[in-house]
From TrEMBL, chains A, B:
Protein keywords: Amino-acid biosynthesis, Aromatic amino acid biosynthesis, Lyase, Pyridoxal phosphate, Tryptophan biosynthesis
Name listed for the protein in its UniProt record: Tryptophan synthase beta chain
EC number annotated for this UniProt entry: 4.2.1.20
Family: Belongs to the TrpB family.
Record keyword Heme present: no
Cofactor: pyridoxal 5'-phosphate
Cited PANTHER family: TRYPTOPHAN SYNTHASE, TRYPTOPHAN SYNTHASE-RELATED
Naturally occurring in which organism (per UniProt): Nonomuraea longicatena
Encoding gene per record: trpB
Subunit details: Tetramer of two alpha and two beta chains.
Catalytic reactions on record: (1S,2R)-1-C-(indol-3-yl)glycerol 3-phosphate + L-serine = D-glyceraldehyde 3-phosphate + L-tryptophan + H2O
N6-(pyridoxal phosphate)lysine modifications at: 101
Span of domain Tryptophan synthase beta chain-like PALP: 66-396
Length: 432, 432
């Protein structure tokens, strides 16, 4: 039931996405430029033109610990809404780390171990990705060093604990152990950090050591491709083709992982990405070349971005607080292959509580965005009488985010207005 | 694959367990004595002599949200130990509340709703049971009011949050809203509470209101019976009969739920209960009639007890901190139908970290007791070369217990010596 291949959508697109550029030369980067950061097999996947790439047996053996993940019909949610829509959700929270992230952490750790790498570095916001990579490294005997955004490091000690249980070393970012971190701390000793800063730190350490590489939890082509195990399973599990697939987007891997196989197999299926109003890269960002990190260590990628200096307001959906977006998804959005909407924090938590009380699972703040949109769509169907088939991505549980639900239930949660001038200001600094 | 019947082991025993007694008359209690606390269908299950009791369709519909639960072969753990033993574990952490507790919370809520009850009260220690009953009440439209032991209420805010997300009202116990709580607070305003006190509060409120009943998460016959869904599933999932079933015991429902069907089907299978050294009711308690709660509101039950005044040291396995034990299991222990051992807190957490790094799942503090014993048994097999087949109960995950792992990893966790005089003193007050 676990698929034997990942699906690479790029050869099925009318045109490939624009290449990443080297910031010094503004020329497309080659495999050698990426070699200090990634092992060759992952670089090959990043630029592959094969539609299907076999999943190695060693990776399948670990996937089997929680895959295939369940696909549920949301009977109780439907009933509570009185909708004629049929709602299905694919639940990735059954993984050891509690989200879809291990789907790519495991192959990334595997290919690095195979290439003789000793240690992986990475960044993490709320800790979903860091704990997934820590788990994967424990499976393949790799060391794991994580830079965790300071705000989350202080507010979410249990994700940090989880990484430690799996044997990882965790730094608050900005940290004094890197040049990038030291520089930022000198300017602002009280910095609460950002994903962009943490990426700079992890990349700096990986690039400097021969036996160390870097791993990214979203955005890149190979990451999105690893996540297609979600959609491939859903294709086999669903009793009917969906009219609409809804997923939340931060870097884009969860949405892409569920949606891409349906683009291949079903002409009637439409896709909708949901992002937070506080970090609206699709709906209010610019499609332009930008850095993936704050310090400008990464190649330039053409993507929907709010500017690499943009620091999103502290919404609880830490996994969606990224200034950029997957270049592949950005390209497809420009081609009109899916739509995107933004949702406010409080309407998302309202949906999360509604979902928990009907379906039992308490959704992480990130997928509450997809659920808020799913509920809104189901209520539209109630008005029109349309028996729309909706598939949504429940990419993780909220066991480490219950303080946020407490704030919502106590009426203390706020929404964040994002004035246009803040976006304009951040975009002003775009390179190129 | 979900079983269609619960298994009631009582008719298969050589003799039935001694009956509960009314403390005033010292005569066996009848159904009418229990009617203020439980609906008639649950009372009937408590005293049933039928071997199999059909699971209602409404309960199966909710079980289906997470059942059947996975049964895994612990290949990676075996390999890390170099043992010839074959280790299997049944994982109950995939339930919405994260443990085996919803297996009984759901039928209890169902039978109460069917009987026209409006509200359920209960106690909870670390919060596993309270969040399970809150989830179950949300499924059947019941109100839920929980008394949570003060120490956990303050130290584990996220379990409290989870109950609130499911719509329950949560009090710290002892609380000023009951007579029992008020009395204890008057004597000791800083009381951190105990399960025995919280039971007194929940029972008091249920007994006083016509439309309110009480629910207990372990100990009673019907609770153990509901948990046999675990063992019935495991029987069908296992490729070979186990030589040994190992489970942790607090009130006994997790151990009984996994083990009872194997007692019925396999003559070669031996059972071993594992309890904490800090709360050793089987290995150091007395088999005697005692109250289930601190205030003495419950009937007297013949069980292995440390005395209803006994307050266990604050180990992190809150679910195992109960002075008594299931009367049914106590009777079977006296009949020599299984063995029992005790494990210290630190050896349990050591096993938990070992398990997390090999099998991926971080076990709750309670099942680390079973895992510590499983690992010890597997290492014995390594010495003898015996290819023993071991089945263990992984009854929940540690997503709400990571602070405890942090303490262990930081070297700050302590073991608790339990001097014999503390046990003697508590047993001294036994009634009868």
């Amino acid at each position: 039931m676990i698929p034997s291949n990942w699906y690479n959508i790029i050869p099925d697109l009318p045109s490939p996405p624009p290449p990443p550029l080297h910031p010094a030369t503004m020329q497309p980067i080659g495999p050698d430029d990426l070699a200090p950061l990634f092992p060759m097999e992952l670089i090959a996947q990043e630029v592959s033109t094969e539609r299907f790439i076999p999943i190695p047996q060693e990776v399948l053996d670990v996937y089997r610990m929680w895959r295939p993940t369940p696909l549920y019909r949301a009977h109780r949610l439907e009933k509570s809404l009185g909708t004629p829509a049929r709602i299905y959700y694919k639940y990735e929270g059954v993984s050891p780390a509690g989200s879809h992230k291990p789907n790519t952490a495991v192959p990334q750790a595997y290919y690095n171990a195979k290439a003789g790498v000793r240690k992986l570095t990475t960044e993490t916001g709320a800790g979903q990705w860091g704990s997934s990579l820590a788990f994967a490294c424990a499976q393949f005997g790799l060391e794991c060093e994580v830079w965790m955004v300071r705000a989350s490091y202080d507010q979410k000690p249990y994700r940090r604990s989880l990484m430690r249980v799996y044997g990882a070393t965790v730094h608050a970012s900005p940290s004094p152990v890197t040049g990038a971190g030291t520089k930022i701390l000198a300017e602002d000793p009280g910095s609460t950090g950002s994903l962009g800063i943490a990426i700079s730190e992890a990349v700096e350490v990986a690039a400097a050591a021969e036996d160390t590489r870097y791993a990214l939890g979203s955005v890149l082509n190979h990451v999105l491709m690893h996540q297609t195990v979600i959609g491939e399973e859903a294709l086999k599990q669903l009793p009917e083709m969906p009219d609409l697939v809804i997923g939340c987007t931060g870097g884009g891997s969860n949405f892409a992982g569920l949606a891409f196989p349906f683009l291949r197999e079903s002409s009637k299926t439409k896709l909708r990405a949901v992002e937070p109003e506080a970090c609206p890269s699709f709906t209010r960002g610019r499609y332009a070349y930008d850095y993936g990190d704050t310090a400008g260590f990464t190649p330039l990628m053409k993507m929907h971005t709010l500017g690499h200096d943009f620091v999103p307001d502290p919404i609880h959906a830490g996994g969606l607080r990224y200034h950029g977006m997957s270049p592949l998804l950005s390209h497809m959005y420009e081609l009109g292959m899916f739509e995107a909407v933004a949702r406010s924090q409080r309407e998302c938590f309202e949906a999360g509580v509604h979902f928990a009380r009907t379906e039992g699972i308490v959704p992480a703040p990130e997928p509450t965005h997809a659920l808020a949109e799913t509920i809104a769509e189901a209520l539209r169907c109630k008005e029109t009488g349309e028996e729309k088939v909706i598939l949504t991505a429940l990419c993780g549980h909220a066991h480490f985010d219950l303080a946020a639900y407490d704030r919502y239930l106590s009426g203390e949660m706020q929404d964040f207005a994002l004035p246009q001038e803040r976006i304009d200001q951040a975009l002003d600094g775009l390179p190129g």
